[in-house]
């Protein structure tokens, strides 16, 4: 009897040991496959000719486990421009298979923390990604110099560690950090867009928008190979006349969106718990953002082809909340309306007249 029990115990121990070995082997094999897949991503070369937009951050300052704060990459041929860089978005960009080393410049819409918090990481990834010998250009309205000087100071020690550890061939000291390129922009009551860049068939425009007291604040437009896209940044669309001028006839209109009826639920919860601070903040944020319905009306007035809602407030823990978030938007705009997600890519193929959606997650 004793011998049988020892035999069973021995078999059980052997099975457990084999299970552990198998699990370890399997985990390692899966990890190798994942690393190989990540390293072999050739996302840019897979895109057809045209203008494309990849979302590396579609959230806001409100915590959201599925959305980093603001970040989008405009892809025009082999040129990459990043619009805003919220905390954590540089990692998203790399996970999407976008080569940070190829970033030509960053464009900032305004200087709220959820639009600039990832700049340090982004500049580091771009520097190390290709061993750049020049800092990363960061374009923005007046004030961008102050932001960039602060980041450069904060990351100066990190830069010496990187060069010290990897050597000057990998981390050339002259390529560290960012270089501010400020442009002048008139007040948000002005309607005329300003041309920032025109070369290689690409044109970039900016116009002032109303996001007071966050001022200056701008929206951007990109035109390339007959296709066009507009990124709103944060704004109150109804009091931003220049935005309508910028958005006119855009193939793709990306507008930030806040749904007050869902925010009401947070306000109700805060009031029930006597949390006056949260209640006040959730009321304050409404007056300098745009509702999905207002965004849809702006898209309709601009005769845009496709509308994507971005900078999603409040956080949506499930896609089942999308109809509640959209509200009555579809009655104001009859074209396609999508809610942006991290990893989403919108493709405006040259010669086409619609938008196609991909996922790079
Ligand atoms: Zn924001
Ligand atoms: Zn803002």
Question: Summed up, what is this model?
Answer:
With 361 residues, the chain is of the alpha/beta class. Helix content is 37%, strand content 25%.
What's the structural blueprint in terms of helices and strands?
Layout: H1 2-39, H2 43-46, E1 50-57, E2 71-76, E3 79-85, H3 89-95, E4 103-107, H4 113-116, H5 119-130, E5 136-141, H6 144-154, H7 156-166, E6 178-183, E7 194-199, E8 202-208, E9 218-224, E10 227-231, H8 241-247, E11 252-258, H9 260-272, H10 276-284, H11 292-301, E12 306-313, H12 322-326, H13 329-332, E13 337-339, E14 344-349, E15 356-359
Parallel strand pairs: 3-4, 4-5, 5-6, 10-11, 11-12, 12-13
Antiparallel strand pairs: 1-2, 1-14, 2-3, 7-8, 8-9, 9-10, 14-15
Task: Describe the protein in words.
This protein is an alpha/beta fold and 361 residues long. The protein has a single domain (50-359), classed as 4-Layer Sandwich (Metallo-beta-lactamase, Chain A), CATH 3.60.15.10. The protein is built from 13 helices and 15 strands. It has helices spanning 2-39, 43-46, 89-95, 113-116, 119-130, 144-154, 156-166, 241-247, 260-272, 276-284, 292-301, 322-326, 329-332, and strands at 50-57, 71-76, 79-85, 103-107, 136-141, 178-183, 194-199, 202-208, 218-224, 227-231, 252-258, 306-313, 337-339, 344-349, 356-359. The protein has an eight-stranded mixed beta sheet. A seven-stranded mixed beta sheet has the order 7-8-9-10-11-12-13. A hairpin with a 6-residue loop joins strand 14 and strand 15. Helix 9 (260-272) packs antiparallel against helix 10 (276-284). The longest helix has 38 residues, at 2-39. The radius of gyration is 24 Å and the shape is globular. The mean pLDDT is 95.
